[in-house]
């Protein structure tokens, strides 16, 4: 296929803007982190519902209360997992998520029973899967952030204001997941282009076993080397952590292996819907689900490792 310079410029510019926004949201402070993943949450939900409508046209007939209510209910999960880190007008977002979530838990089924023309378990199942697939995953991402704050960061570096810069360290585990997946995508593409011969899955015919394994190994080595050296070299009085060196190799391995499964899951959804991309928000790269499909599946598995083994 001939090289398309215009397509290359579009993809490069979009990627640059995407990286700047992601790094800004990740690293500025806790509020930018929360806002970033709230936008990702609602963007993924919008595209997920569009895919489901194509997979099962009956989903188009759900009430607006159902359509937007499940998005809001999912966001309440994110609010709940902010724990004690977020206050707004004297209200903890953790408590707001809990009580608003309880209200939606009772009102959503009631409204569905009263106003839906026909209750279909399959339709309910699609929405419930979206809660687990998108909302719970991003809620656990918030919890990984809060876990570092609670267990390893001294209170003297907390900055409540939105425009006051925070520290890199609370974003430690989210950053490892995201950077591992970014590096894996690049390395898998390079390895697959150079030595890829064996198809990995019929769901995603462009993937090869050689590229997949190469991406996993190279991204694991890169992230493991970087973060193990960060732990060795830093001397920050406000941050107290010391994990075994293998931690910095295990977490990237978990992220990229499960992230690959997330990529295949979204590819399967798109194939069932008969579309190439989940959305058009990022020219040349697709939509929210196309960019965060791996993250949505990788995060819960990294969370399990952090909470049960660290």
Describe this structure in words.
The protein is mainly α. Helices cover 71% and strands 1% of the residues. Strands 1-2 form a two-stranded antiparallel ribbon. Helix 6 (172-195) crosses helix 8 and helix 8 runs antiparallel to helix 9. The protein starts with a helix and ends with a helix. Mean pLDDT is 84; it is low at 154-165 and 233-239.
Question: Would you kindly provide a brief summary of this structure?
Answer:
The protein is an all-alpha fold. Helix content is 71%, strand content 1%.
SSE layout and pairing:
Blueprint: H1 5-27, H2 30-55, H3 64-80, E1 87-88, E2 91-92, H4 93-115, H5 121-152, H6 172-195, H7 209-233, H8 247-273, H9 288-309
Antiparallel strand pairs: 1-2
Characteristic key phrases:
310 residues; mainly alpha; 1% strand; two-stranded antiparallel ribbon; 9 helices; 71% helix
Task: Give the fraction of residues assigned to helices.
Answer: over 70%
Could you tell me the radius of gyration in angstroms?
20 Å
Main β-sheet: number of strands, strand sense, barrel status? 2 strands, antiparallel
Structural class: mainly alpha
Question: Distance between termini?
Answer: 48 Å
């Amino acid at each position: 296929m001939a090289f398309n310079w215009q397509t290359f410029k579009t993809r490069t510019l979009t990627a640059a803007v995407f990286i700047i926004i992601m790094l800004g949201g990740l690293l500025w402070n806790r509020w930018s982190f929360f806002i970033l993943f709230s936008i990702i949450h609602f963007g993924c939900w919008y595209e997920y519902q569009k895919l489901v409508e194509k997979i099962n046209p009956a989903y188009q007939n759900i009430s607006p209360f159902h359509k937007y209510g499940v998005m809001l209910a999912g966001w309440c999960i994110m609010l709940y997992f902010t724990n004690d880190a977020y206050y707004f007008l004297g209200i903890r977002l953790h408590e707001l998520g809990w009580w608003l979530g309880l209200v939606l838990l009772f009102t959503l089924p009631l409204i569905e029973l009263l106003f839906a023309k026909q209750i279909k378990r399959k339709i309910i199942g699609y929405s419930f899967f979206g809660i687990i697939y998108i909302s719970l995953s991003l809620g656990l991402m918030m919890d990984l952030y809060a876990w570092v704050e609670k267990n390893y960061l001294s209170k003297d570096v907390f900055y409540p204001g939105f425009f006051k810069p925070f520290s890199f360290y609370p974003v430690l585990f989210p950053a490892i997941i995201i950077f591992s997946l970014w590096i894996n995508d690049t390395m898998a593409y390079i390895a697959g282009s150079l030595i890829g011969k064996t198809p990995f899955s019929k769901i995603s015919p462009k993937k090869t076993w050689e590229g997949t394994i190469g991406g996993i190994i190279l991204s694991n080595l890169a992230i493991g080397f970087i973060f193990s050296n960060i732990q060795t070299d830093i001397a920050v009085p406000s941050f107290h952590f010391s994990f075994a060196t293998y931690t910095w190799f295990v977490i990237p391995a978990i992220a990229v292996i499960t992230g690959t499964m997330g990529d295949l899951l979204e590819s399967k959804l798109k194939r069932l819907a008969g579309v190439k991309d989940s959305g058009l928000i990022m020219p040349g790269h697709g939509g929210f689900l196309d960019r965060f499909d791996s993250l949505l599946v990788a995060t819960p598995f990294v969370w399990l490792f952090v909470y049960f083994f660290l």
